[in-house]
TrEMBL record:
<keyword id="KW-0732">Signal</keyword>
<dbReference type="GO" id="GO:0030247">
    <property type="term" value="F:polysaccharide binding"/>
</dbReference>
<dbReference type="InterPro" id="IPR012291">
    <property type="entry name" value="CBM2_carb-bd_dom_sf"/>
</dbReference>
<feature type="region of interest" description="Disordered">
    <location>
        <begin position="141"/>
        <end position="160"/>
    </location>
</feature>
<feature type="signal peptide">
    <location>
        <begin position="1"/>
        <end position="22"/>
    </location>
</feature>
<protein>
    <submittedName>
        <fullName>Cellulose binding domain-containing protein</fullName>
    </submittedName>
</protein>
<dbReference type="GO" id="GO:0004553">
    <property type="term" value="F:hydrolase activity, hydrolyzing O-glycosyl compounds"/>
</dbReference>
<dbReference type="GO" id="GO:0005975">
    <property type="term" value="P:carbohydrate metabolic process"/>
</dbReference>
<dbReference type="Pfam" id="PF00553">
    <property type="entry name" value="CBM_2"/>
</dbReference>
<dbReference type="InterPro" id="IPR008965">
    <property type="entry name" value="CBM2/CBM3_carb-bd_dom_sf"/>
</dbReference>
<feature type="domain" description="CBM2">
    <location>
        <begin position="29"/>
        <end position="138"/>
    </location>
</feature>
<dbReference type="InterPro" id="IPR001919">
    <property type="entry name" value="CBD2"/>
</dbReference>
Length: 357
């Protein structure tokens, strides 16, 4: 944080950037197509153990980095894997690419294998997702953008998120490899903020069942850093471009009474890119995404930062840097920071207080 602009300045600046970027005409581009097919075969089986091979075919646009998920029946467990890093939590299994097989072009395939154990029966899993997209053998657009800039139709996301919730996105530029630490880490930060708000207010917000929606961006990192900038100051370019793209691709307004929205993007210019919030929105760049993934500093700093920015999204202004509340520099002391009674009242009576229950 020492190389980054002071957080207490962000709310004022963010209000301006979100309003301005909403008016910028971003290039009209087709949404990235997504689709996949998975063939899971049991290659061998013995008493209490088995070997399996999993073949993945990417039917959509090229991807750089993949994460395949499925659910095992009770009693099945992965023991050893090759050509992939496979982890298991309960019956949920996640396989992530290794360094040499993460890039899959349209129609491209890769495979990996593992040995496992079972008790009772050994059924083949029936449902898989690749980078969050169900592998049905077909292709669907990622989001559903309007057919033209003047169209009055509202884009519909591929899965309808519940209304009156906090909706969270991780936008991954085209040249950034998928890394499961990011959606998992961002989800963990949001759940901690959810706990903290209940502690402080007696009420808290609801997260969607898919806590973090992973979005493959339409551009590479450099585009987000350098496009739609004012002069040489790229501080707001990254989050402004993300904000504009998420609104356009997913039909989200600024603000939007249906959801409070959090967006994080894995792009940042050294010592320049940042983030902030205004009512209904939180926008954060690579610094915070890395922190949530456990890559950049102690977690209490990122927990406190999210609590701070959500405070702005719920309508709070910054406060004095030494007042002990998370709306000041005191958020660095998280969890030893607390909302004042006036701040609690303002959140509960504010435009997004209805999201708390």
């Amino acid at each position: 944080m020492g190389t980054r602009r002071i957080r207490s300045l962000l709310a004022v600046a963010a209000t301006g950037v979100l309003a301005v970027t909403a008016a910028v005409l971003a290039p009209v581009a087709s949404a990235a197509a997504a689709g996949c097919q998975v063939n899971y075969t049991i290659s061998s089986q013995w008493q209490g153990g088995f070997g399996a091979n999993v073949a993945i075919t990417n039917l959509g646009d090229p991807i750089n980095g993949w994460s395949l998920r499925w659910t095992f029946a009770s009693g099945l467990a992965v023991a050893q894997a090759w050509n992939s890093t496979v982890t298991q939590s309960g019956t949920a299994v996640t396989a992530v690419n290794v360094s040499y097989n993460g890039v899959l072009g349209t129609g491209g395939s890769t495979s990996f294998g593992f040995n496992g154990s079972f008790t009772g029966t050994n059924p083949v899993p029936t449902a898989f997702t690749l980078n969050g997209v169900a592998c049905t053998g077909g292709v669907v657009p990622s989001g559903s953008p309007s057919t033209s800039p003047s169209s009055s139709s509202t884009p519909v996301p591929s899965s309808s998120p519940a209304l009156k919730t906090v909706r969270v996105f991780w936008l991954k530029p085209t040249d950034v490899a998928f890394d499961q630490r990011y959606p998992d880490g961002i989800a963990a930060v949001m759940r901690e903020a959810q706990r903290y708000y209940r502690q402080e207010l007696g009420k808290t917000f609801t997260l969607n069942s898919t806590v973090v929606e992973v979005v493959t961006g339409e551009h590479d990192r450099n585009w987000y850093i350098t496009t739609n900038c004012s002069g040489s100051d790229h501080y707001w370019c990254v989050v402004g471009n993300m904000h504009q793209e998420l609104m356009r691709r997913f039909g989200i307004a600024n603000p939007d009474s249906r959801w409070l929205v959090v967006g994080e993007i894995s792009a940042e210019e050294t010592n320049q890119s940042g983030g902030g919030a205004s009512p209904g929105w939180v926008v954060l760049s690579g610094h915070d995404a890395d922190g949530a993934a456990g890559i950049n500093g102690p977690m209490n700093r990122w927990y406190g930062g999210m609590v701070h920015e959500l405070g702005h999204a719920f309508g709070l202004p910054d406060s004095t840097s030494t007042d002990g509340t998370p709306m000041s520099g005191s958020f660095y002391d998280y969890p030893n920071t607390h909302f004042s009674q006036a701040q609690k009242n303002a959140i509960l009576s504010g435009p997004y207080g209805g999201l708390l229950s």
